[in-house]
Amino acid sequence: MTHGYNFAYLDEQTKRMIRRALLKAVAIPGHQIPFGGREMPLPYGWGTGGIQLTAAVLGASDVLKVIDQGADDTTNAVSIRRFFARTAGVATTTVTTQATVIQTRHRIPETPLRDGQIMVYQVPLPEPLAKLEPSRAEAARMHALAEYGLMQVKLYEDVTRYGHVSISYDYPVLANHRYLMSPSPIPAFDNPKLHMSPALQLFGAGREKRLYALPPWTEVRSLDFDDHPFRATRAPQVCGLCGAADSYLDEVVIDDRGSRLFVCSDTDYCAGRQEAGHGG
Amino acid sequence: MAYVAVKGGERAIDNAHAWLAEARRGAAAVPELGVEQIAAQLGRAVERVMAEGSLYDRELAALAIKQAQGDLIEAAFLLRAYRTTLPRFAASLPVDTGSMRPLRRISAIFKDLPGGQVLGPTTDYTHRLLDFALLAEARPPAAPEAAASDAATPRVHDILGAEGLIEADAPGSAEPFDLTRAPLGFPAGRDARLQALARGDEGFLLALGYATQRGYGNTHPFVGEIRMGEVAVEIEPPELGFAIEIGDLALTECQMVTQFAGSKTEPPQFTRGYGLAFGQSERKAMAMALVDRSLRAEELGEDATAPSQNVEFVLSHCDNIEATGFVEHLKLPHYVDFQSELETVRRMRGERGA
Question: How far apart are CA A250 and CA B338, in angstroms?
Fold first, then answer.
């Protein structure tokens, strides 16, 4: 553990401020709560919101997993995992089932989450209306009135123009039938995993100084139309390493003639399947 | 694949840091730059980093500049990340810039005034010719000195204010908003606005201020006064009941005299734009004063049509630590999201071809 800093870096007063905001967030699923976000020793955009939330909920006996793009070994996941190993001395793991706290950027693990686990999402833009209404003050008014017609019109225009909703990640959801919410930039493929999850799901946006939450077993509906129902899509291939046909795949360019290899984005899921004898 | 080098991420990061440290030091045959040298000889850089890093400490700012290889935004970020770990003991009393003994003091609206015009150590009238003598180490001749004047140097705005020609300073709130502890919300009070501008990016404020001059939210500004010098910082501990001095700050203050306003009930008077920055940071203080005044459009009943008049726009984007973080985060892996876009585009192209 690094000396000279408090457990998990943040001082206890700051953690308490964040936990209070988290309690409020859990009580109002999907509603963005402003919080006094601190400057962290990692840059804004690298997961400072998620890091502050993890720091606020982490205890000495927790087991932490950090993923970026579904993988435990991407550079930023390595860096954040090391940060907590240094400042909190907690045990870390790459195994989804062993983790009590999972901080993530852009993915939800393929292995179903269980009761008692906490997911912490890194969120760049917590405001789902931002692309339609850049003023946060105006967006807050629209949330208060549940005035989400603008988003429905955007989806409708997509359908008329492209035949589909064109949003493929950060696909807007309605939390607990009330608040329009950004699921963070996870692929739409992951959206169904948000719904009725047994895990507590926390979302932190450091630069925008907002946090929000989905308590366990919250209904989360991806916006759609009766005649254009939401569809979770993935590359049609199977994983080249473990043969999975149900996991989200990364596409890797393997030579200068454009050949591609499709592999699981969730490295823990893929490794587990390979150990169990599955091959590509 | 080195970017995600499977299982190699940790080693790659360590190696990158070692390389960075070596590159920072540069050629071993050249003497290493001392922090004292930076603090003493790169004063403008140090002051900019202190302002945007929101921490008045010349030595730490110089260290940050050294560590950041002269990247001033990175240096300000290092200082911010450090300052946020410091406990907050007290809020100071407002500093009294009127009692400053200025090293520099100029007014563009009065030819002469009590306390006089003092150019001070300015580059204003240097001819921008590269001074090749500085290529070699050279000791400049000593600057001429005169006995210090004890004459009072009242603020130009107080002189104007005595005649009621300029609006009075708005009374401050007892406990000002603290941007370092509370999230910015809208509408934002002037205390929050001035704090955000004071730590805002000099380049961003400069461009916005410039735009107001060119017609995007013009405020008809005159430099009432610019003054630079040291002021005492005082706190009033509750257990003492009186103020004690805890140190000095070097500041540049700019008061703009701008577009007059009046109504049926109020006689016309000039309005104010205010800029304040650590050290000798005149460009920053002036740009801040222009933008501060521009942001008061709504309060003063002016049409708010230009970006510089939009409080949410200016305050949400003036912080260069936030801005650089979000712009630069685009270099982090996004291949999951890009993959989802690829699949969507392929599907749409497939349907169109079918």
Answer: 9
Distance CA A74, CA A262 (A): 17
Q: Do A265 and B337 touch (CB under 8 A)?
A: no
Q: What's the first-to-final CA gap in chain A, in angstroms?
A: 41
Report how far Cα A152 is from the mean position of its chain's Cα atoms: 23
Return the closest-CA partner of residue B150 out of B181, B179, B115, B186: B115
Is the minimum CB–CB distance between A162 and chain B shorter than 8 Å? yes
CB A136 within 8 A of CB A127: yes
| pLDDT attached to residue B2 | 33
Query: Vertex B146, ends B141 and B150: CA angle to 5°?
Result: 145
| Residue A29, min C-alpha distance to chain B (Å) | 20
Active site residue A45: no
Is residue A270 annotated as part of the catalytic site, yes or no?
yes
Cis peptide before A128 (omega within 30 of 0): no
DSSP string for B14-82: HHHHHHHHHHHH--TTSPPPPHHHHHHH-HHHHHHHHHHHT---HHHHHHHHHHTTT-HHHHHHHHHHH
A239 included as an active-site residue = yes
Tell me, what DSSP letter sits at residue A98? G
Annotated active-site residue A206? The verdict is no
Q: Which residues of A touch B340 (CB under 8 A)?
A: 168-169, 187-189, 233
Residues 234..253 of A with a Cβ closer than 8 Å to B: which?
A: 234-235, 248-252
d(CA B305, CA B307): 7
Cβ within 8 Å, pair B333-A82? no
* Collapsed DSSP state (helix, strand, coil) of residue A66: strand
Tell me the whole-structure pTM to 2 decimals.
0.93
Average pLDDT (B294-309) is 93
Judged by average pLDDT, the poorest of A31-35, B129-133, B225-229 is B129-133
Q: Give the DSSP letter string of A154-201.
A: HHHHHHHHHSS----BS--EEETTTEEE---S-BGGGHHHHTT-SSEE
Question: Measured between CB atoms, does B11 come within 8 Å of chain A?
Answer: no
Scan for tokens 């007014």, then name that residue.
Answer: B107
Please determine, for residue A150, whether its predicted confidence score (pLDDT) is greater than 90: yes
- ipTM for this model: 0.92
B15 interfaces chain A, CB cutoff of 8 Å: no
Q: Is B59 on the interface with A (CB under 8 A)?
A: no
Query: In chain B, which among 180-219 make CB contacts under 8 A with chain A?
Result: 181-187
Q: pLDDT category, B8, cuts 50, 70, 90?
A: low
For the four alpha carbons of B99, B105, B107 and B111, in that order, the dihedral sign comes to: positive
Determine, for residues A75 and B6 on separate chains, whether the beta-carbon distance falls below 8 Å.
no
Contact status, residue B250 vs residue B279, Cβ threshold 8 Å: yes
The pLDDT-based confidence of B89 (bands split at 50, 70, 90) is confident
d(C-alpha A86, C-alpha A101), whole Å: 16
- Chain B partners within 8 Å of A46 (Cβ): 325, 329, 332
Known catalytic residue at A242: yes
Q: Find all residues with CB under 8 Å of B11, minimum gap 6, and list them.
A: B5
